[in-house]
Structure formats: C-alpha cells, structure tokens
Write a structure and sequence with these properties.
Blueprint: E1 2-7, E2 13-19, E3 26-30, H1 41-49, E4 53-57, H2 75-86, E5 94-98, H3 100-110, E6 119-123, H4 131-142, H5 151-161, H6 171-174, E7 178-180, E8 186-188, H7 205-213, E9 219-224, H8 232-241, E10 246-250, H9 257-260, H10 262-276, H11 290-297, E11 302-303, E12 305-310, E13 316-321, E14 324-329, E15 332-339, H12 344-351, E16 353-358, H13 364-370, E17 383-385, E18 391-393, E19 398-410, E20 413-425, E21 432-435, E22 438-441
Helix pairs in contact: 1-10, 2-3, 3-7
C-alpha cells in the first residue's frame, strides 16, 4: 500500500495507506481510539486481494496524522474528517469503523444530507455501551503517562490488558503505535489532548441514537463475544434503532476483534461486502463447450494434491491433481481422475498403488512443480519412501497411501479408485485451495473457542 496525505475538514493533514484497484468497490477503514491505521494491516491486505480499493486512515491526533492545535477531538470533528476523506475517494465506500471509528462513521453517515457510503460496518461499538468496559479502556489509555523505557515494556502492558490473547504482542508491530520522545521514552502514538474525553462522552449517546435512526444503508454490527464494551443489551438496543442491520458475534474475540480473530473477522466482512457492494456485476454464462465447461467447473473450490507412485524403473513419479475425493469409509476408498493421455497413467496402473498428498498453503511451489512437463518434478522437493516403497511428500497436510481398488472409464479421463492402507495428517496446517484457475487460501482456526 502507498502512504499518502489527505486533508481533514478543517485543513488538518491526515495520513492514510491506499491500495488496490481504484476501479474496484471502495472501502474506508477507521481505527479505534488510541490505535493507528496499522491495526487494519491484515484486513486491508485481504480486502485488496478480494479486488477492493482500500483507504486505511490515521484519524486526527493518531498515528502519523497531525495533532489539532485547538484540541478539536469531538465526535463531530472525527465525523467531519470522514466526510472530507470520502469526498476524495473514486466512489462511495463501505465504511468500516472500530470503536471511535465506528462512532465517527455512524455520525458522518446518519447526519449527512446526501449519501456518503454504500454500507457501514461497526466493529464492537454501538450507541449504548457498557460504561464499565469503556472505563477500562480509558483507564488503559491514561495509564503510564510517563511512557515506557522500551517497546518490550509496552508489550508487557498490552499483555496484561489483553490476557485472553495466547500470543504476546509482536514488538515490531507494536512499535508502529508508539513514538519515541526527546526524553528517550516511548509513548502511545496519539495526542494526549485526545484523552480529555470530549470525543466519546456518555452525553453523546443521544446524538448517536439520532444518527442511527437515520441510517438507510446496509449495516453490519460485528461484536466480540468477550467484549467488555458491547453487551447483549447494547446489541438489542442497536437493532431496535437500525432494524435492517445484520449482526455477527465473533467467538473468542474481545473489543479489538481484528487483532484477536483477524481471519474470522475478514471472512465475516468479506461476505457482507460481496452482498452489498460486489466486486463485479453479475455476468452469468452458459454452454457446454469445453472452455465454458472448464470455467464452470472452476467455480467449485477444491484442495490441491500431488499423486505419487513409482515408475517402471522404480524411479519416483507424480503429478498435480485436484480431482480427488472420498468415496467410502467402509471400506476406506478414495478416487482421483487422470487424463487417459497422461504419461502417468501407465506408471500408476502398472504399480498398482499410489499416494495422494494433500498440500498445505506453504506448498504451492510443489503443486506448480508437479504440473510442469519435461522436468525432474522431485528436484528440490522434500520427500521420503513409505514402508511400502512409495514416494511421500514430506510435511504434506495429509497423505493417503493406497492400492488400486478399481479403474473406471470416464470419457477422456480414467477414474482411479484406491483402497486406503494408511493415512497421515496434520490438522494444524492451512490448506492450499484452487478456484477459478488460481490458487487461494483459507484459514482454519484450531483453538477451542471456535463455534
């Protein structure tokens, strides 16, 4: 992403990261109070990869954006910045705001006389919030006014504040939220004047409610199940104000959802965006010509495997295949399909046995290697011999060692059905996927909080 300067409503300079196709659907990311645009880093990358134009903003008084000389940090000031930034974007965006950013979005959209957004995503914030939770956040933000001697010391403070996170904060990422003062101490990257509490006072609640009642754009509320700010009462109140809104609860996440459960958050938001602001208009095609049939089949997302066996001279042989599926558990049968003109047909049929190696996300290069022609496909690939003398790709997500059960005719392909003799797998891996002729990924959470 490219870092640029934008202008706020009163001429205040605002720093933003901008990336993606400007012709794609636009998204504006607004962080929470005390955070910076870097809190959206992974989410922004996922949005760009999904074909969207993204502006991730440092709000006034935060990160690299300028500080207001007259401490203009009311919610109205933040909302006016939202309108000013939207005016610079190539199309009306879906605005995604966390905490303070969500309130600024709510006020900016609800109080605007003309449309400024195609949709709104509020991340763990509603007009009515749990005061104990907001007080805890405010307490963390006002603690340590003298700063920290090291970034690691700041990380310790974050770990104490967020005990639900199993992994301690990355000090490299955390350093982007800190500034080094002339006294050699690190302080949070926001203007201390922001903490005079004018921006998120309880007496703003009536303003938030009035703005919410005027919201007409598609709206999604994303709450963390461990949130200390938004409780069930807050959600019910919100849905009364905006009846058309959608609501999602992210298990295992607290107030900073994108930081706690980034992949679950991204999946939720991308699903919403694809429904309210598609990356491309519907363009259905029909026909049974080979090219159209192949493109249609490409709409079915599959895993990626490498099928291995031994050639006529006992040399290792193999090829990439995504036509793999389970057939039966009793007896244990699987199948894959292979073009009858493939030189690998004789090797598999003559050996009478094969291994299906299911690849994980880090093995894309192996998939590409085994799809090439006229090369040593095993060169620079880690593999071992199985007990039955078949080549097995090392560290694959799963390996199914099989003997041929039956071979069927299938048009221009042969269908090899194998009886599984042994399976080795690692559920902790993320799978390599194939969709629309391209590699893709999905993250599979492994923690016990997953619903």
């Amino acid at each position: 992403m490219e870092s640029v300067w934008l202008e706020g409503h009163d001429g205040l300079k605002l720093r933003a990261d901008v990336g993606g196709d400007r012709a794609g659907p636009a998204v504006l990311l607004l962080h929470g109070g005390g955070q910076t645009r870097f809190s959206w880093q992974k989410a922004a990358q996922a949005l760009i990869a999904a074909g969207r134009f993204v502006v991730s903003l440092d709000q006034r008084g935060h990160g690299e954006s300028a500080w207001s000389d007259d401490a203009a940090y009311t919610i109205g000031d933040f909302a006016a910045d939202v309108r000013a930034v939207v005016a610079t974007m190539p199309s009306l965006p879906v605005i995604i705001g966390a905490s303070l950013g969500g309130l600024a979005s709510l006020v900016a959209i609800g109080e605007s006389e003309t449309p400024i957004a195609k949709g709104m995503v509020l991340v763990d914030v509603t007009p009515k919030m749990n005061p104990d939770g907001t007080d805890r956040i405010r307490g963390f933000m006002t603690a340590n006014p003298e700063g920290f001697a090291t970034v690691a010391e700041a990380a310790d403070a974050v770990a104490a504040y967020l005990p639900h996170r199993a992994v301690r904060s990355d000090t490299r990422g955390l350093s982007k939220n800190l500034r080094l003062g002339e006294d050699g101490r690190y302080r949070w990257h926001w203007d201390p004047a922001f903490l005079d509490d004018r921006g998120m006072r309880a007496d703003n609640e009536a303003r938030y409610e009035a703005a919410a009642r005027k919201i007409r754009v598609p709206t999604l509320l994303v709450r963390g199940s461990l949130s200390e700010v938004v409780n069930e009462e807050s959600v019910r109140h919100f849905l009364d104000l905006i009846p058309q809104a959608e609501y999602t609860n992210i298990e295992g996440a607290a107030h900073m959802i994108a930081g706690d459960r980034n992949d679950a958050f991204n999946a939720t938001v991308l699903d919403f965006l694809e429904r309210v602001s598609r990356t491309s208009p519907p363009a259905p095609q029909e026909g049974i010509e080979p090219a159209l049939l192949r493109a249609g089949m490409g709409c079915f997302s599959t895993g990626v495997t490498v099928v291995t066996t031994r050639g006529p001279n006992n040399e290792p042989a193999g090829f990439t295949a995504n036509s793999f599926t389970s057939v039966s558990l009793d007896p244990p049968l699987v199948l894959f399909c292979l073009n009858r003109t493939s030189p690998s047909v004789d090797a598999v049929r003559d050996r009478g046995a094969f291994v299906v190696n299911v690849l994980h996300l880090g093995q894309q290069a192996i998939s590409s290697r085994f799809a090439m022609k006229n090369v040593d496909r095993f060169e620079d690939v880690k593999w071992t011999w199985s007990a039955d003398g078949l080549p097995v790709i090392s560290e694959a997500m799963a390996s199914f060692e099989c003997t041929i059960h039956e071979i069927f005719e299938g048009g221009d392909h042969l269908i090899f059905v194998g009886r599984v003799c042994r399976v080795l797998f690692d559920k902790g891996r993320d799978p390599l996927l194939f969709l629309h002729g391209k590699y893709n990924r999905v993250h599979i959470p492994t923690d016990t909080t997953e619903a």
